[in-house]
């Protein structure tokens, strides 16, 4: 540790820290444009100048290391004058178009110009003009505003692992852009908008839509992938206008995947806003009492074993427990939340969660990825793996399709399950080994054997201990783990989804279940679809009950590591749509056996009774029992693994309804490894 003085205050910081970091420890705010704590130091903007005792001139605090006994001054006449001059330089070529700039109101340059700007300039030359660049359908560029901080370049290269942005020219002729004009091929492009300290990079879908002070801001969690990123939903009236990330160091740091950020326009399209009943082969609008009566008329004569229910991938835990209790009241054990048929052993939580925790990636020292493409399944988690690889001494083995670019080098072990045994060499001598099993690897006929083989691989590497659990299942959506925690799987006499299809049941309740081909449902099966989008399954339904999307309800979700999180309602559901658990509670009363809860607090108490994790938010980390999941490691098949999400941009019912995501799917090619 190094001791120094900042404006007379003694502080102690780790050796090698910068003066800027020491000033922050001392509680002094240092202006900056190019510096960002998650990126390498560039030292471009010089806005962070401070005075150091005995130094002949102001120093850039972001790039200047601390020294024992150093005396730093952050607010002297020399410092103030130096920062004013830097601001004057920055504004020489800036267009000063704040009234039409989408960054207005949340612009670092505006804020710092208030503190250090002047009312005039000594420069009379004409401002330079720079051509706007095309970087894809998500980011709008106005390069006249660029101040060459290079944050975007460093993020694309270091965090996203896609070195497609750079600078050409020198001095006044320097320009930032893609060397050949094209769309950026990263799933994290939206974070460039957050990083840009001026209005050079702004959101194309949000262009000229609103000002930040007009928006109502609601903290929530993302469910479009299983990371469960902390987000902020910005709304005006009944409409979602923006989704931005919030900082959560243990989950998403401060990043957000592009599908989670930009697919919100899908919330306005293909929505179900009233009940529908199929009559004479056609769906016709109906009232809630009519829809409930039609369902009750069909269900009451049926025995429990002829009724089934499937929970979708984006469904909240409150709705899952309500549907489970409704099915129990009907005497049915035909429940399933695994639309993809994944062989997930729900008997122990260690078998289906990301055991090390997402933050545990930082502590791992070897990784084997089996049948997963984390770049498309969870881009933010993939960026964390890349960050760990950049730190060094982190071998990565990959069992899966050839030609996939994960943004970090991997040792290709093979394309099929037979290569799992060869992965032992990657984990050899690792103190914190990790095996990442993709959900797609388990959604195969030999899925149980794959899970058992992966567990055995990690057990052989001593990666299953009281202080470390390296068995990590990567789910794909935010509602998948919560349903497993609530035991929404077939009972002892129940049928799985495969057994319910093809006429296995006479009535099938689909709760937001759009992840399988509805053509597989038997032609005589009565289908109730409860959800928020007119997607795949709604077209097969006999009765449609309109539910609420994740931005429209108070709800609980569990991310891939088993972290229980709460989402909050930012807007009201459209039309006659209602929260899903309330629909199920209302229908149970029509049956004459009302569910024993009327408030969301009572529903959550019921969830905690089913699984205490919903009362404590407990995050599993230890492995108390080395016994593996059900499955024979010797029963592996020969078929190669295939990518579970072929098109990142259109993986769920919301993004499939999004015009922005459709344009991304059209323009941006899939990322493939370099030849």
Query: Based on DSSP secondary structure assignment, what is the total number of beta strands?
Result: 26
Largest sheet: 7 strands, mixed
Distance between the termini: 46 Å
Write down the Rg. 27 Å
Give a short summary of the structure:
By secondary structure, this protein is of the alpha/beta class. Helix content is about 25%, strand content about 15%. The chain has 3 domains: about 1-90, Ubiquitin-like (UB roll); about 205-345 and about 495-625 and about 650-675, Rossmann fold; about 355-475, 3-Layer(aba) Sandwich (Dimethylsulfoxide Reductase, domain 2).
Can you put this structure into words, describing what you see?
The protein is an alpha/beta fold and 675 residues long. The protein folds into 3 domains: 2-90, Roll (Ubiquitin-like (UB roll)); 205-347 and 497-623 and 648-675, Rossmann fold, CATH 3.40.50; 353-474, Dimethylsulfoxide Reductase, domain 2 (3-Layer(aba) Sandwich). It is 24% helix and 17% strand. The strands form 7 sheets. Strands 14-13-24-23-22-15-16 form a 7-stranded mixed sheet, covered by helices on one side. Residues 78-117 form the 4Fe-4S His(Cys)3-ligated-type domain. Its EC number is 7.1.1.-. Belongs to the complex I 75 kDa subunit family. Residues 1-78 form the 2Fe-2S ferredoxin-type domain.
């Amino acid at each position: 540790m190094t001791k120094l003085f900042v404006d007379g205050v003694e502080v102690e910081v780790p050796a090698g820290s910068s003066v800027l970091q020491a000033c922050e420890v001392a509680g002094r705010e240092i202006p900056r444009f190019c510096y960002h704590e998650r990126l390498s130091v560039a030292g471009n903007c010089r806005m962070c100048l401070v005075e150091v005792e005995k130094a002949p001139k102001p120093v850039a605090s972001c790039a200047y290391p601390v020294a024992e006994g150093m005396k730093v001054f952050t607010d002297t006449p020399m410092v103030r004058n130096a920062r004013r001059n830097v601001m004057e330089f920055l504004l020489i070529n800036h267009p000063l178009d704040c009234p039409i700039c989408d960054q207005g109101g949340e612009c670092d340059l505006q804020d710092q110009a208030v503190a250090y700007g002047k009312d005039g300039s000594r420069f009379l030359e004409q401002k330079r003009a720079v051509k706007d660049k095309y970087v894809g359908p998500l980011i709008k560029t106005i390069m006249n505003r660029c101040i060459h901080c290079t944050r975007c370049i460093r993020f694309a290269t270091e965090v996203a692992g896609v070195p497609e942005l750079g600078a050409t020219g020198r001095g006044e002729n320097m320009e930032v852009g893609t060397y050949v004009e094209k769309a950026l091929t990263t799933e994290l492009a939206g974070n460039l908008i957050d990083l840009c300290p001026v209005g050079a990079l702004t959101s194309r879908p949000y262009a000229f839509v609103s000002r930040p002070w007009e928006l109502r801001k609601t903290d929530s969690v993302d469910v479009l992938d299983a990371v469960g990123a902390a987000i902020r939903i910005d709304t005006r009236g009944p409409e979602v206008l923006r989704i931005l990330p919030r900082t959560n160091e243990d989950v998403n740091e401060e990043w957000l995947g592009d599908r989670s950020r930009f697919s919100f326009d899908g919330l306005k399209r293909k929505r179900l806003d009233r009940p529908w009943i199929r009559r004479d082969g056609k769906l016709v609008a109906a009232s809630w009492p009519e829809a409930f009566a039609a369902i009750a008329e069909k269900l009451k004569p049926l025995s429990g074993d002829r009724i089934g229910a499937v929970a979708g991938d984006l469904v909240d835990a409150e709705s899952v427990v309500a549907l489970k209790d409704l099915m129990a009241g009907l005497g049915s054990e035909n429940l399933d939340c695994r639309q993809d048929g994944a062989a997930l052993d729900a008997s122990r939580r260690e078998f289906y969660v990301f055991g090390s925790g997402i933050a545990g990636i930082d502590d791992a020292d070897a990784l084997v990825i089996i049948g997963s493409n984390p770049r498309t399944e969870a881009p933010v988690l993939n960026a964390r793996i890349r960050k760990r690889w950049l730190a060094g001494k982190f071998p990565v083995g990959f069992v899966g399709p050839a030609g996939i670019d994960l943004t970090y080098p991997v040792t290709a072990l093979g394309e099929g399950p037979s290569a799992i045994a060869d992965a032992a060499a990657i984990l050899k001598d690792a103190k914190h080994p990790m095996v990442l099993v993709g959900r797609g690897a388990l959604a195969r006929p030999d899925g149980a054997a794959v899970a058992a083989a992966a567990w055995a691989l990690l057990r052989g590497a001593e990666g299953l201990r009281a202080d470390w659990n390296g068995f990590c299942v990567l789910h794909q959506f935010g509602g998948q783990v919560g349903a497993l925690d609530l035991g929404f799987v077939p009972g002892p006499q129940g049928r799985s989804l495969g057994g319910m299809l093809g006429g296995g049941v006479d009535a099938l309740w689909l709760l937001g279940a759009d992840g399988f081909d509805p053509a597989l449902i038997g032609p005589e099966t009565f289908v109730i679809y409860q959800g928020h989008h007119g997607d795949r399954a709604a077209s097969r339904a006999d009765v449609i009950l309109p539910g609420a999307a994740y931005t429209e309800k108070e709800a609980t979700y569990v991310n891939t590591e088993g972290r229980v999180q709460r989402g909050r309602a930012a807007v009201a559901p459209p039309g006659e749509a209602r929260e899903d658990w309330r629909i199920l509670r209302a229908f149970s009363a029509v049956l004459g056996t009302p569910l024993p809860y009327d408030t969301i607090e009572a529903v959550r108490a019921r969830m905690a009774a089913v699984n205490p994790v919903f009362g404590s938010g407990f995050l599993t980390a230890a492995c108390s029992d080395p016994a593996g999941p059900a499955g024979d490691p010797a029963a592996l098949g020969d078929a190669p693994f295939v990518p579970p999400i072929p098109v990142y941009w259109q993986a769920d019912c919301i993004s499939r309804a999004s015009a922005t995501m459709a344009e991304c799917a059209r323009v941006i090619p899939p990322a493939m490894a370099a030849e």
